[in-house]
């Protein structure tokens, strides 16, 4: 039996270059152990086929212990159990309620609204440049990649216009990573979700609550469902759904920032997408594979003793997928460490996970990223990094993200 490699997630080399560190573990064995001081080991599938299989295997489930919950006031506790922590019929019931708003068709229908939001943010970038006073530099993470996803998800869910500035602030806190700031923001987030539900019930949201109506229908639809069948959706569930969907909608923040930094660091790939905008959908898939923000899947728990590659993983043990390693698995992708925007789709990346907990907002994230990059490149033909992106990486073994993205326009 091949020895199981161990990866210390506090190792400076892992933090500096997780793709190389996780890739080395992948080539040694299909199963690894991740070491996290104070938390014990986590089993990790390192290769594409094993990772994909585990993510869809009912023997491994997400639970409350899969997440690092911050301390919150007692009145917030009922709203902390989100759809992500559920499995089986309970998870399927809630997902079925919200899934119609996140289909590829709905994302395509929402594209004109996303385009308008992108153009408005780019106008703001230009308007704010004189105030930056730094030779035309601007931080695209702060002024573009962070506010855009919040504006989009608020419009889709139906958060009232006047409440969106505070959701922007909460979104920036969440996107910056978990910690005390996030814990302090939670009561406000919960209250904001409750306010949005109350506004929808009172008819003040300004959006249609009919299926197939204008963007912003989701909250109105949830309120309608509850009014027609109170047993199907409780007050606690609807508030929890709203805050979770809005905050989870920040996923494209790090994706957009990573994608822009990658293209600006690879002149040939940048030139290719500039020359042929039709490449953009495929280019975004390649960028998710090559530099997507998810390095590790959220840990699952074994529901029973499970044998993985000759190793018995005991009941209750944590198991994850090394997404960064799987997405660069040479068994699946030719020359996987090379960024190639014309790469054929092939087997598909695991950047949005797989199985029952496949990212609900994947289609929306794809469209946002396509629109955002296309608009940036079109509006600013001289766009360039002001600082090498590698100097601005957050030391995070689970999420590939930037702390800032200064560029010259």
UniProtKB/TrEMBL annotation:
Gene3D superfamilies: Cytochrome P450. SUPFAM superfamilies: Cytochrome P450 (SSF48264). It holds the Pfam family p450. Transmembrane segments: none annotated. Belongs to the cytochrome P450 family. This is Cytochrome P450.
């Amino acid at each position: 039996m091949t020895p199981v490699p161990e990866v210390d997630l506090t190792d400076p080399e892992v933090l500096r270059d997780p793709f190389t560190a996780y890739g080395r573990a992948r080539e040694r064995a299909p199963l690894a152990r991740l070491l996290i001081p104070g938390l014990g080991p986590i089993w990790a599938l390192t290769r594409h086929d094993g990772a994909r299989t585990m993510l869809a295997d009912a023997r491994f489930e997400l639970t409350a212990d899969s997440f690092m919950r911050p301390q919150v006031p007692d009145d917030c506790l009922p709203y902390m159990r989100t759809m992500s922590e559920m499995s089986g019929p309970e998870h399927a019931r809630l997902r079925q309620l919200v899934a119609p708003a996140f289909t590829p068709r709905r994302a395509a229908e929402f594209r004109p609204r996303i385009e308008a939001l992108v153009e408005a943010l780019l106008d703001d970038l230009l308007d704010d440049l004189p105030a930056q006073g730094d030779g035309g530099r601007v931080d695209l993470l702060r002024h573009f990649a962070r506010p855009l996803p919040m504006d989009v998800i608020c419009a889709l869910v139906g958060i009232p216009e006047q409440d969106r500035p505070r959701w922007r602030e909460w979104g920036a806190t969440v996107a910056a990573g978990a910690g005390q700031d996030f814990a302090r923001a939670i009561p406000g987030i919960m209250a904001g979700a409750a306010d949005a539900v109350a506004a929808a019930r009172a008819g003040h949201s300004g959006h249609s609550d009919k299926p197939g109506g204008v963007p912003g229908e989701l909250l109105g639809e949830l309120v309608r469902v509850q009014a027609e069948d109170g047993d199907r959706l409780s007050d606690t569930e609807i508030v929890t759904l709203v805050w979770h969907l809005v905050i989870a909608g920040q996923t494209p923040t790090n994706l957009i920032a990573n994608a822009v930094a990658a293209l600006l660091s690879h002149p040939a790939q940048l030139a290719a997408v500039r020359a042929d905008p039709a490449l953009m959908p495929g280019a975004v898939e390649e960028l998710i594979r090559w530099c997507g923000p998810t390095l590790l899947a959220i840990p699952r728990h074994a529901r029973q003793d499970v044998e993985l590659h000759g190793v018995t993983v005991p009941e209750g043990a944590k198991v994850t997928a090394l997404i960064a390693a799987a997405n660069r698995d040479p068994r699946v992708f030719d020359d996987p460490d090379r960024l190639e925007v014309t790469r054929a789709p092939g087997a598909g990346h695991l950047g949005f996970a797989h199985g029952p907990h496949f990212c609900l907002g994947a289609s929306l994230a794809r469209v946002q990223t396509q629109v955002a990059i296309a608009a940036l490149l079109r509006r600013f033909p001289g766009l360039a990094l002001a600082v090498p992106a590698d100097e601005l990486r957050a030391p995070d073994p689970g999420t590939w993200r930037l702390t800032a993205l200064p560029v010259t326009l």
